[in-house]
Specification:
The chain has about 300 residues and is an alpha/beta fold. It contains twelve helices and nine strands. Helix 2 packs parallel to helix 12 (about 275-299), helix 6 (about 135-150) crosses helix 7 (about 170-180) and helix 9 packs parallel to helix 11 (about 245-255).
């Protein structure tokens, strides 16, 4: 399902994208990264619920490549109207030690998948960055963007809090993305991470421009910073509309920039992992679509 967006002064439609962690029931970061459900059932459940976009994690993509192959995966996505594909996560792409070798294997996998699936973007980050200089990161980001451009896709750097990243602000991330000078390189804005970095909706509207390439993800939760921060990120995220976040304000800030792309929902929650595949797809889409529609009308 897509929402007409002309009423907000934009051109085109707004599609809802389900991230890997939202739609791949039973999976968990660091614990169980490969989905045990049949990929056909996963795609059918997402499409039946109304999703027009899906995300795929590198560990799962590796299994899918060896089982059904990317050509068949692409055929299944097309047959079910999944038009927006995200592949993730690439880390350590800026390193020069042994971490880079493992990163380069993931890099090759994600670039291959992005080309074969017609992915909109590859999502990357700098989780665990131990002080790599920004100028080196910028040069490496530019190289990665060049490789992605050859395969018809984009690179989106996910801005994370200082607990996990060396670039925990819009100013720093924009120094990276703009400094690289790549037309297909940009920033992934997750409303949870914006909140935890102290980035306001006004900051988004003021510091980003129509020329910046962006992606958008939403989820919900408590405004107060949790005691166990990591646990809150990988086990406690709520579905849109079930928490205290100002999702409407966040969406209106990105829409004010002229953004008319997909809205992703990324919910990672230990209880939702136990839900049946179809139920999670249906409930997450219904709640997300309502929040997006409400934000459009409020604007």
């Amino acid at each position: 399902m897509i929402f007409a967006a002309e009423e907000f002064g934009m051109i085109g439609d707004i599609g809802i994208h389900g991230s890997y962690w939202t739609l791949a029931s039973g999976t968990a970061p660091l614990i169980q990264e490969v989905c045990s459900h049949d990929i056909r059932e996963r795609i059918e459940s997402a499409a039946r619920a109304g999703y027009t976009g899906m995300g795929f994690w590198h560990s799962d993509l590796e299994v899918l490549r060896e089982t059904i192959g990317f050509a068949e995966l692409k055929r299944l996505l097309d047959a079910h109207g999944i038009r927006h594909v995200e592949v993730e996560w690439l880390n350590d792409w800026y390193c020069t030690d042994e971490r880079r070798r493992a990163s380069d294997r993931n890099r090759a996998l994600l670039l291959e998948a992005a080309e074969a699936l017609g992915a909109n973007h590859i999502k990357i980050a700098d989780l665990g960055n131990d002080g790599v200089p920004l100028d080196r990161m910028t040069a490496e980001f530019a190289k990665l963007c060049d490789e992605a451009a050859e395969r018809g896709t984009r690179i989106l750097f996910e801005m994370l809090p200082a607990d996990f990243s060396a670039l925990p602000s819009l100013d720093l991330v924009l120094s990276l993305t703009r400094g690289a000078g790549a037309r297909n390189g940009g920033i992934m804005l997750d409303n949870l991470h914006m909140l935890r970095t102290g980035t306001s909706n006004a900051d988004i509207a003021a510091k980003l421009s129509r020329d910046d390439v962006i992606g958008v993800e939403i989820n919900d939760g408590a405004l107060a910073r949790p005691v166990n921060f990591m646990d809150s990120i990988i086990n406690r995220r709520l579905l849109p509309g079930d928490g205290e976040f100002d999702i409407a304000g966040f969406l209106q800030a990105v829409w004010s920039l002229g953004y008319d792309g997909w809205i992703g929902v990324e919910v990672i929650n230990e209880y939702f992992r136990e839900w049946p595949l179809a139920a999670m797809a249906e409930v997450s889409f219904a709640k997300t679509s309502k929040v997006v529609a409400d934000a459009l009308h409020a604007g």
